[in-house]
């Protein structure tokens, strides 16, 4: 049974360690340094009590009413079960309830499944940042949130 709940940074790091696409070895300190004093939301997905995925975002400075969905992922063993979409929808719902008007996220050409999910859930492309290779280019998306 799937359960989505507020999670801890330690849980997010544990999930990230099992996601091949998420390179690096971030620590709780690294995540907190990025978020700073901004309000944040960290959700985890559990399947039958086992961690399966996470979604982490925070309020952006300088763009009032905007929430940035920074990181998220689902462990390979739990993919194709709709968990990423359920985390996305849970994040949208909770940040709308908190009064945010817009949610933004970045992805790359190397993650076509993520881009398809965003587009099919009402996100619009809002920017493109070239890199040395097209697969590394960053694509920005945004979605206007409907107040709860």
Automatic annotation (TrEMBL):
InterPro entries: Acyl_CoA_acyltransferase, GNAT_dom
Highest rank taxon of the organism: Bacteria
GO molecular function, one term: acyltransferase activity, transferring groups other than amino-acyl groups
Location of the N-acetyltransferase domain: 2-146
Protein name: GNAT family N-acetyltransferase
Annotated organism of origin: Thalassomonas viridans
């Amino acid at each position: 049974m799937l359960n989505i709940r507020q999670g801890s940074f330690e849980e997010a790091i544990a999930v990230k360690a099992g996601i091949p696409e998420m390179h690096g070895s971030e620590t709780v300190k690294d995540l907190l340094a990025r978020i700073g004093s901004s309000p944040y939301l960290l959700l985890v997905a559990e399947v039958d009590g086992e961690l399966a995925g996470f979604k982490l975002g925070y309020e952006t400075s300088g763009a009032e009413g905007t929430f940035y969905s920074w990181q998220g992922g689902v462990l390979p063993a739990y993919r194709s079960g709709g968990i990423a979409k359920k985390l996305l929808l849970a994040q949208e719902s909770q940040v709308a309830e908190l009064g945010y008007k817009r949610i933004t996220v970045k992805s790359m050409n190397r993650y076509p499944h993520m881009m398809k999910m965003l587009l099919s859930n009402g996100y619009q492309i809002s920017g493109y940042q070239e890199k040395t290779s097209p697969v590394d280019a960053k694509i920005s998306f945004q979605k206007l949130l409907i107040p709860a």
